Amino acid sequence: MWCCRAAATGRALGRLASGAAVGTFDARAVWRTDDDDLVYLSYSGRSIVPDDVRAEFADPAAPPVDPSRYYLRIAPVFETASARYDWLNGLLAVGVGERTDFGVRHRIYEIV
């Protein structure tokens, strides 16, 4: 297991015309690992967040929303020049997102 923090980030979000609750996004970030290597991450994804859930997200006094009530999925691609993390360059992965107090957390899974 390894951990990292964002060294620089960029993000673009949008809603699809096919449904008010359906969104698409495209994100890019540079992560610095705990052992000081850099990893470039880009991902696209889809979200389905019904209007009632979106209203709860907007209310800071509301309790956390059960993730089964919305859908956040990503398809990340990693790039690095680090010999230690070279295995990421060939990884096929998907991520499942969950909204937290500090933003969205994605659990990323390798497709084997």
Notes on the protein architecture:
- The longest helix is centred in the middle third of the chain and has 8 residues, at 51-58.
- A hairpin with a 6-residue loop joins strand 1 and strand 2.
- A 6-stranded antiparallel beta sheet has the order 1-2-3-4-5-6, with no helix packed on it.
- It has 112 residues and is mainly β.
- The chain has one helix at 51-58, and strands spanning 4-15, 22-33, 38-48, 71-79, 93-100, 103-110.
- The protein starts with a strand and ends with a strand.
Strand order, biggest sheet?
1-2-3-4-5-6
Runs with pLDDT <50, length 5+?
none
Q: Number of DSSP strands? A: 6
Q: Helix coverage percent of residues?
A: under 10%
Radius of gyration: 15 Å
Please summarize the sheet with the most strands: 6 strands, antiparallel
* Shape type: elongated
Strand percentage lies at: over 45%
Topology as a string of helices (H) and strands (E): EEEHEEE
Q: What gap, in angstroms, lies between the N and C termini?
A: 17 Å
Write the layout of secondary structure elements.
Elements: E1 4-15, E2 22-33, E3 38-48, H1 51-58, E4 71-79, E5 93-100, E6 103-110
Antiparallel strand pairs: 1-2, 2-3, 3-4, 4-5, 5-6
Name the descriptors.
single chain; 112 residues; mainly beta; six-stranded antiparallel beta sheet; 1 helix; 7% helix; 54% strand
The gist of it:
With 112 residues, the protein is mainly β.
